[in-house]
Amino acid sequence: METLQYFLPQVWFVILAFFLFLYVMLDGFDLGVGILSLTSSDEKRRGILMTSLSNIWDANETWLVLMGGGLFGAFPLAYGTILNALYIPIFVMIFGFIFRGVAFEFRELSRRKVLWNFAFGAGSFTAALGQGFALGAVLKGIKVDETGHFIGSTWDWFSLPSVLVALTLIQGYVLIGSTYLVWKTTGELQATHYKTAKLAAWTTLIGAIFITVTTPIIYESARTKLFQQPLVYIFAVIPVLGVWLIWQLLQSLNRQEERAPFVWTILLFVLSFIGLGLIVFPYIIPPQITIYEAAADPSSLVIMIIFIGFLIPVMLFYNLYQYIVFRGKVTGNSYGE
């Protein structure tokens, strides 16, 4: 039983990290495309951007729902405490999702699309901003008592470092959205997003450098973790790999390759998640409550693993099937021009 109490929380930590990664990767380019739609110069371009998402965007958010449900079942203490600490960022994110969903559907039926176009772009930006503030607050740490219950203030999530994390996350979403559009579009629109991808790559790199440098300076818990043996060697390699991946991304954009920039961007997201996971683990409520302290009963964790073991292959197959079916380019003819 002691082995299960030690092993099962680790399994669920990995599963939840997997759900979160798939959400950020898949819905990330949705949000990025939505943010980029705010800069589109005419209705035809904006229509092409939204058409590129029309058959896939709603399924991408399923992974966030699975992560929320998994967190509630596997780590109920963390679920209650984190929601309590991050009410405002989470509600900001939810309102952004509402605006996006309503705007996406109503725009197709509206003769005057300006309002719904803005609502879709603004909703995408708002959802990304809420996620960035939530991530920044978790990295900063959540104030809890000895039982793991939140004892901080309503605005603990808002700080200069969390603003930096939020802006960097938005740039990351713009980057993956731009590389997705490079893959899915042609002609002048594709050329435009080669440029936006290059700009977003540089701004994301600058933000990542600031976060990497300031995190161990500002947060004692992160500083202690970063300089532990042997993790110090891993954390030394991650920034080097990140710069190399950015360089490969920029080179592929300069060569005007279509699919490679999207692949390099995904690898950047993978590397970022590995770094964040190593910093946070084994805490589920940084920097005090571990996954072992917050985990549900082992029998519950086993039952949930059996259920999720059937669900994950179905979800992965569904997502993969969608992308295979709708893998072609989106053009003005696709939009009905």
TrEMBL record:
* Protein location: Cell membrane
Q: Which Pfam families match?
A: Cyt_bd_oxida_II
Origin species: Anabaena subtropica FACHB-260
Q: Which PANTHER family match?
A: CYTOCHROME BD2 SUBUNIT II (PTHR43141)
Q: What is this protein called?
A: Cytochrome d ubiquinol oxidase subunit II
What residue ranges are annotated as transmembrane?
A: 12-38, 85-103, 115-138, 158-183, 199-219, 231-250, 262-285, 300-321
Topological type in the membrane: Multi-pass membrane protein
Q: Which InterPro entries match?
A: Cyt-d_oxidase_su2
Recorded family membership: Belongs to the cytochrome ubiquinol oxidase subunit 2 family.
**Taxonomic lineage from the root:** Bacteria, Bacillati, Cyanobacteriota, Cyanophyceae, Nostocales
Keyword presence, Lyase? no
